[in-house]
């Protein structure tokens, strides 16, 4: 049964965390966006020739792992997204749509950070990461976006020149800097720096096929 908040009218949807995924109408693909966590780590692992196992997410990135599990349980194909892989992820989605030969619905889920009270802390880096992917999807003609997705896209488009500053100045970036990992925050802010899109295949995030399924 549809609701006013499930964005079912739109091909490209956007929400936050496990609760947001459950709020949205079922989608063919779910892109889990975790810019300073699983999304960038998975793309780095692919570039190093060591695909990231789904099971490895639980200890390192529990919030992202929870969203991935929920997406798998819902029967969706799952990709991990970040600023570094925005175009690569969009290209992988376009390849899936070509292979299926029909419109493919996409839910982008920003991970944020789970709070002790059971809510989600807004993470600017995940908003921008989702917006970058939504912007890249539009370049492939996948542009029937919900208002929520369109707002995330506009945030990225308007703030793109300041992305590096925003990632290092925001709370998550400041935490990385305090932990001595400033270079990680700077690397995560490099839009389209990675060419492989991490897609969950047989329990491992491997490079998504671009030419088809």
Automatic annotation (TrEMBL):
Q: Which Pfam families does the record associate with it?
A: 2-ph_phosp
Where does the source fall among the domains of life? Answer: Bacteria
Q: What is this protein called?
A: Probable 2-phosphosulfolactate phosphatase
> Which species?
Microbacterium aurantiacum
């Amino acid at each position: 049964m549809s609701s006013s908040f499930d964005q079912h009218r739109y091909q490209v949807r956007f929400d936050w965390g496990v609760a947001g995924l459950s709020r949205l109408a079922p989608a063919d693909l779910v892109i889990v966006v975790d810019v300073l966590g699983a999304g960038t780590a998975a793309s780095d692992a692919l570039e190093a020739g060591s695909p990231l196992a789904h099971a490895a997410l639980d200890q390192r990135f529990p919030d992202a792992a929870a969203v991935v599990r929920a997406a798998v349980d819902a029967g969706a194909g799952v990709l991990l997204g970040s600023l570094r892989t925005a175009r690569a992820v969009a290209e992988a989605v376009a390849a899936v749509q070509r292979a299926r030969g029909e419109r493919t619905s996409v839910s982008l889920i920003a991970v944020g950070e789970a709070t002790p009270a059971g809510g989600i802390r807004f993470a600017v880096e995940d908003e921008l990461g989702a917006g970058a992917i939504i912007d890249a999807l539009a370049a492939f003609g996948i542009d029937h976006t919900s208002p929520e997705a369109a707002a995330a896209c506009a945030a990225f488009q308007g703030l793109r020149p300041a992305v590096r500053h925003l990632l290092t100045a925001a709370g998550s970036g400041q935490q990385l800097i305090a932990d001595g990992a400033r270079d990680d925050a700077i690397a995560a802010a490099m839009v389209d720096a990675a060419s492989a899109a991490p897609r969950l295949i047989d329990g491992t995030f491997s490079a998504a096929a671009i030419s088809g399924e």
